Amino acid sequence: MLGSADIKVRPLKLALMVDPNSPTQVREAIRLACTQWGGMFFPIIPVHKRMPASWRDGPLKPPPAQTVVKGYLDGFDPDILVQFGKELPKYVLDSKLEVLKPGDIWRGDRDKDANEPTYGIGVLDVLLDIYKEHFKFKAKYPPKAIVPVIPKTLGLFWASVFGEYPAHIAEAIDREFADALELTKPEVRADKFRELTEGDVLFPRRVTQWATRVQGGVGYRRSASVFFMDASKIEDVIDYWNLRASGRPVLPLPKQFLAVESFKQVIVEYLDEHRRPWEKGSRGFDVASLVRSRHSSMDEMQAFAKSLAPPSADGQQGAATQRMSLQHWYPRLWDEWARGKDGGVADVYGKDDETIDIAGEGDLSIRLKSLIPSFGRENWFWSNGRCVNEFDLRLYGADEHLAEVYPKVEGDQLLHAITGNIGGFGEWRVGRHGLVRIVRRVSGESRKAPESEKIFFAWLKDRGWEAKLSSPGILAKQIYKRLGGAVGMLADKEVLALIEHMNGGTISRGGAQKDDRVGAERQASVAEVKRKLNGHRYEWFVQKGIFKLGLQTKCPNCQRNSWFGMTTLKEEFDCPKCLNTFRAAGNIDQGRSGWFYRTAGPFSVPNFADGAFSVLLTLEALAGHVTSSRRSTSVPSFEAMAPGKVALEADLAMFWRDGSYGDDTAGILFGECKSYGLFKPKDFQRMRYLAETFPGAILVFSTLRESFTKGEIAALTRLAKFGRKYWKAERPVNPVLILTGAELLTWERPPRCWSEELQKRFRNVHSLMEHCNASQQIYLGLPPWHEDWEAAFDRRRRAREKKSEG
């Protein structure tokens, strides 16, 4: 087994679970966040029992509280939950995340050890690194370190802006860093906002983002926001905190300070700073968004925007949108369907990362080291979780399919399959980009690379399905093992035709199977096999044991040729045709005696290894090149049973992810594969059932042929139209992907494997979603699915207009 592991270090992310009606809990959550490295990015999750009326969107009712809370947890992807209230609902506990109380973060009871957190990297370590960087040696222009004094009026809002320390941490900071950092404690006022938020000022909330970097999310050019809010409302304060925790640069704009000219001027400068022109010669600009809170009206926000509009050339009031864009809704961070369109939640990493090479033996072991930040105390062997390592695995060259992508853990079976017998259940989990390890010790650890089959079947078992490989799946697994994972060596029509000829299958001159009859095995001379396989491929096939060598000689009794394997050669032969025995001496030189090959093991199964070749070549095409950013966890043909349900059956399945540590897309797919046979009605019915059972799954139809019959095209078109309905995040509900010999029997990947005309038409086919869209246009003649969506949206708009007029 070979491969690599990209390791990234990041802060331990805590989700702070609060009662949305308790300002005390919210403030305690802010204080706890300010004591941790990366705390600025900790979400404050309001655990609503029922969503407030402020969530009503026009005539639409507020979403269910459970949907919102689970959506926030899914979007922010925390490592640990911190419970500030009396209890958490069962659906939160079912997330399998570790749950702590605020007091669990500290050792002891306000003694000297309580300044060191048992989870995460504490602010004292961060301040020590800041001291070494900027204050140990006298700099000409050092940053200013402050601990602002929060006023009672709008105290919760100001605490969310600047941060605040618990009393015991504030005392420790005074004791250890007051002189070293020349700490000051200015009073917070609206008219001092500019002075206190200058770029070189370090205050508690800003300290937590030391040595971090934001990756992904909205993007550099359109990420800036101004949050138009009511600073007296707890809900708006939480929304402001979470908007910033999502990775966006955000300035608050409370309605209470609209008349404070210095505060207003900071907003104006911020908007001008983020007004960036497009390409040279273009008149367009990227601008910051003015986001309306739930406790502000659109009229109030528009009035403010209008007051900032620059005058036009003739002296008249200009357009407010020249300086900003007005966003009347709060970004839907909780909504999986809309999160991608609204920018989502960015990833926050430390500045340290590393790539290690994996070169395991047959035991498939991986040695994963612990990567820790370059700052902080080293004496933390007692920590329950210092930081987090994220692993992006790329594994290849093994003799079985290994897991590179993992679904979110929702049940004990999958959790056990991931953690195995190493570590504790709280140490390893599945994050947004794959395996996540909470680092609790300096030393690394060895673990076995998880098998795809175990991961996928455990995921199904958590959903009530008992799955196992079918007979073709077992055969495909044996072939994959024999090839050492190098399935691409079979991606040649002539190679498949040779193997099918030798194992007794009946094929036409073009390589297609004529019928389902199974003939006797055929041998081919060594010279013929060498001629049909190039030198490198011939040597590789022989080395992998795909062929077995034997002697062909004529029986002196029946005068017919027979083949005798190397292991059966002896002084006397038993003729399989006439059942007589004859001596080797004097007979092996007669007639057409010579050395011949026959197929061995699973390669001797006719009908293209009972369809296993097409399954394996499809998985190979879907997995992408070793150098690509696609990751996969795949299994060959399987069947699954569940009480009271129709059995599941598919020729292949795969968890997939396109992209790496960025704007990833991920999902699951199922496949129906044919060698040269035709797709039948039962095949389409089986895939339709999978689509209804797993919304969002890609449905793959693959064949070694290069064209389809009219009946197949009609059936594929019906299923494709059913599956291309808009689902979420610019994705169809069940996209259909079509693969033929043009994609399977080649080393090239789309679009390079297509004709020049198609390459020009589909230049940017890199992701699975793009490939689905292109394949439906190429093989079914359908338009791009966004055209169907636009037509559907237009029909609904006209219907609404007609209804309102009536």
Model description:
31% of the residues lie in helices and 22% in strands. The protein is α/β, with parallel strands linked by helices and 806 residues long. Among the domains are: 120 residues, no CATH class; 129 residues, 3-Layer(aba) Sandwich (Cobalt-precorrin-4 Transmethylase, domain 1), CATH 3.40.1010; 125 residues, no CATH class; 186 residues, Trna Endonuclease, Chain: A, domain 1 (3-Layer(aba) Sandwich), CATH 3.40.1350. The strands form twelve sheets. The chain has a six-stranded mixed sheet with strand order 22-31-32-33-34-37, sandwiched between helices. Helix 20 runs parallel beside helix 21. About 1% of the residues have low confidence.
CATH topology of the domain at 610-795: Trna Endonuclease, Chain: A, domain 1
The poorly predicted ranges are 421-425, 515-519
Euclidean distance between termini CA atoms: 69 Å
Strand content: 15-25%
* Fraction of residues in H or I helices: 25-40%
Strand order of the largest sheet: 22-31-32-33-34-37
Shape: elongated
| Count of distinct strands | 37
Q: Which CATH class of the domain at 610-795 is shown?
A: Alpha Beta
**Structural class determined from secondary elements:** alpha/beta
Largest sheet: 6 strands, mixed
Corresponding CATH architecture of the domain at 610-795: 3-Layer(aba) Sandwich
Which descriptors would you attach to this protein?
six-stranded mixed β-sheet; alpha/beta; single chain; 806 residues; elongated; Cobalt-precorrin-4 Transmethylase, domain 1
